[in-house]
Write a structure and sequence with these properties.
With about 80 residues, the chain is α+β, with helices and mostly antiparallel strands. The protein has four helices and three strands. A hairpin with a 2-residue loop joins strand 2 (about 40-45) and strand 3 (about 50-55).
Length: about 80
């Protein structure tokens, strides 16, 4: 989520590189975030290759802001 906050959208491969997550783990997390309505997922092709593109939703942005605010209260910022 923190990667998607600053981007309009991101490809699965980019997210995998940046998070250093396994493909299976990242796929599971993306599915959960999509089901929660926090991200939208578009699947398509880039040339002959499949591509998955993730984009944060307004609901996801709000949830992330709330999460950060809660964390700040724990560390007294």
């Amino acid at each position: 989520m923190s990667l998607l906050i600053g981007l309009e959208e991101a490809e699965f491969v980019y997210l995998k590189e940046k998070t250093k997550a396994s493909a299976g783990n990242l796929s599971l997390q993306i599915d959960k975030l999509c089901l929660a309505g926090y991200i939208n997922v578009k699947k398509g092709f880039k040339g002959k290759y499949p591509v998955t593109i993730c984009k944060i939703t307004p609901k996801g942005f709000k949830a992330f802001e709330d999460y950060v605010a809660t964390i700040k209260t724990y560390i007294n910022i």
